[in-house]
Amino acid sequence: MGALATESINEVDFCGKMATAMTAFFATFRETCPFVEARVEGMGSSRSKRARKDLRVYGPNNRVVLTGEVKLPGGVGAFDSDEVKNAHDKAEEANVQFFFTWDVNTFVLWDRSQWDRALLDRQVYVKRLGLDLVSSRELARPETLDHIEKRFLPNLIRDLAEIVNGQRRDWALPPDEVFLRSLESHLDWPVSLLRQHMHEAAASNRRFDLDLQAWLIAQDRVFVRNDPALWREAVDGPIFFGHRIDEVVWKFDGRGGGYEISAARAGMGARRAGGARRRAKAWMP
Question: Do the beta carbons of residue 241 and residue 264 sit within 8 Å?
Fold first, then answer.
């Protein structure tokens, strides 16, 4: 049975790593880069559950250029309305035009100067990581952090520099796409919890593991149980939102595992859920 990674990373330490990598990359195109340094600032220590530190980007003369909210995979998404409001309020306090929300899987840049638009309509840029991470354990893997620092961040920073410098405009998504992104953001959290629960239960409970394998076989899912990568790929197969996710939890856990997913249980038959379906493909019966 493949063992799950036990190493993890917290939000403050992740932001610290990103700040170091970002500052190093700023120096590679100093003449055109509007950024000088990224810092993690705030109160509390990284060991404290009450720590509140934020990732900020500074320009010349120690001027704040970007502020935002960073959350780790498995929590709220980058399009979560409360998260966007928190990030907006920080930008307003710092008196900066642009702010971001970043759940690691998705980075969204917002423009505070678009005061005449609804808050969720003020996004001007979206960039996906492309790894679909579901937990801080997956994020803590050396190869994952290396990918973010050496491949994702350089492209992200170049794009942000062009936007802040005024070289790129009209990056906003159409309203229907914003709606779908916000919807998916709210669904990503319970779906991530479900996936994480399945992996952990299969690793610790032999009966659960055998039931899960039998179910995957019944769904014509190809997997190799002693290959961690192929096993994760099979279990993490995208969930089709047209079905009731809570029924799958009950099927595997017998008691629901504490995951009552009302958003999914309400049904996703509306046409506006089409984008979520296209992203999700069939996984459940």
Answer: yes
Coil, strand or helix at 48: coil
pTM beyond cutoff 0.70: no
pLDDT, averaged in runs of 10, over the chain (285 residues): 62 94 95 94 52 82 94 85 91 93 93 86 86 87 93 94 79 58 59 71 87 82 78 64 38 40 34 36 35
Residues 127 and 240 grouped into a single domain: no
Contact 75, 36 (CB under 8 A): no
The pLDDT mean for the chain works out to 75
Contact 279, 238 (CB under 8 A): yes
| Cα–Cα dist 108/53, whole Å | 19
Place of tokens 């593991």: 209
* Domain boundary, last residue among 114, 139, 173: 173
Round to whole Å and give the CA distance between 145 and 130: 13
| CB-based contacts of 149, cutoff 8 Å, min separation 6 | 17, 18, 21
| CA gap 72, 67 in Å, rounded | 17
Domain that holds residue 184: 177-280
What's the domain count of the chain? 2
Q: pLDDT, tens digit, for every residue of 27-82? A: 999 899 999 999 998 754 444 444 456 899 999 999 999 999 999 987 788 888 88
Q: What is the CATH number of the domain that holds 156?
A: 3.90.1570.30
Check whether residue 136 and residue 213 sit in a common domain: no
Cα 237 to chain centroid distance, Å, stands at 17
Which pLDDT score is estimated for 117? 82
Last residue of a domain, one of 115, 139, 173: 173
Question: How far apart are the C-alpha atoms of 237 and 33, rounded to whole Å?
Answer: 40
